[in-house]
Amino acid sequence: MQNRTVRLFAVGCLLACGPLLADTIAGMEAFKKGDYASAFVAWKAAAQKGDAEAQFDLGVLYAKGFGTSQNMQEAVRLYRLSAEHGNVQAAFSLGQVYAKGWGVPRDDAEALRWFQAANSGDTDAPVRLGWIVAEGYGVPQDFAAAAFWYRTAAEKGHAEAQFNLAHLYASGKGVAKDDDEAARWCRASATQGFAPAQARMGWRFANGAGVPKDDGQAYFWLTLASRNGDKHLDKLRASLAIKLTPSETAKLDESARAWQEKRTVLAKK
After folding, report:
1. Residues 26/42, Cβ–Cβ less than 8 Å
2. DSSP 3-state of 114
3. Domain membership of residue 265 as a residue range
4. What's the rounded Cα separation, in Å, for the pair 23 and 53?
5. Which of 73, 88, 120 corresponds to the end of one domain?
6. Radius of gyration over alpha carbons of the chain, in Å?
């Protein structure tokens, strides 16, 4: 997923959960750096202790041949162990390998069983499944499947899924390129307070991408994004401030503050 190329874990959780989770996190940090050999060692240690997340991630390394020899049979074994412990990514990956006959005999019934297990009651599951196939994380990359899963969650109001679906429409990956549709889903996400979407809406208004060009709206959305912690377009925001009068920027700053406070109150209800 864009802005979610790997899963991140809180430091506080690391301190609370001890060595087992520490190995899992160490593996992810090594994986992000491209140090697959270290990731393999860390994830293998955690997987042997029964960590479902590490079992799935170790399976990915075997599936890809990263940090070890490629071995789909071992990947499937680890996916199954992880899935049986409730890991939805592993369950979905099992569905994928059985549906496509990827390292195992094709078995549509077994594929359906695992797909159903992956999508049973977890509201975040479709987003994670979309990310898996969009990134090709342990399964063949498939943007059309990613669009399906993102849309499943986006239509239920999931802000991150809406943002990721917007990215697919903007890039034409898995769906026909449609900047208007990209802007629509991006706005849906931004209005829910998702900071990356707010930053993107600011960029869209600044450039007239899928929306009318509007420096004031661009500044407003970029201000919201910055207040919410996404500051990667602060230089664009500063350049827009130069185009606006001090009175205009003051009003927009106040509007952004009031908007955010209202969202915070609504979120607590």
Report:
1. yes
2. helix
3. 197-269
4. 11
5. 120
6. 21
Q: Residue 268: what are its φ and ψ, rounded to 5°?
A: -85, -15
3-state secondary structure 221-249: HHHHHHHCCCCCCHHHHHHHHHHCCHHHH
Alpha carbons 119 and 127: distance in angstroms, whole number = 10
> Structure pTM?
0.69
Question: Taking a C-beta distance cutoff of 8 angstroms, is the pair 125, 119 a contact?
Answer: yes
Per-residue burial over 252-265, b if 16 or more Cβ lie within 10 Å, else e, is: beeebeebbeeeee
DSSP state letter for 35: -
Identity of the residue numbered 116: Q
Answer yes or no: is 168 within a domain: no
pLDDT in tens, 96-151: 888 888 888 988 888 878 887 887 656 777 888 888 888 887 777 899 989 998 99
Per-position b or e across 51-60, b if 16+ CB within 10 A of its CB? bbbbbbbbbb
145: CB partners within 8 A, 6+ apart: 130, 133, 174
Torsion on CA atoms 174, 179, 182, 183, rounded to nearest 10: 180
* Residue 161 within any structural domain of the chain: no
pLDDT in tens, 49-97: 999 999 999 999 999 999 999 999 999 999 999 999 989 889 988 988 8
Show the DSSP H helices in 141-194 as ranges: 143-154, 159-171, 179-190
- 74 occurs within a structural domain: yes
Structural domain total, the chain:
2
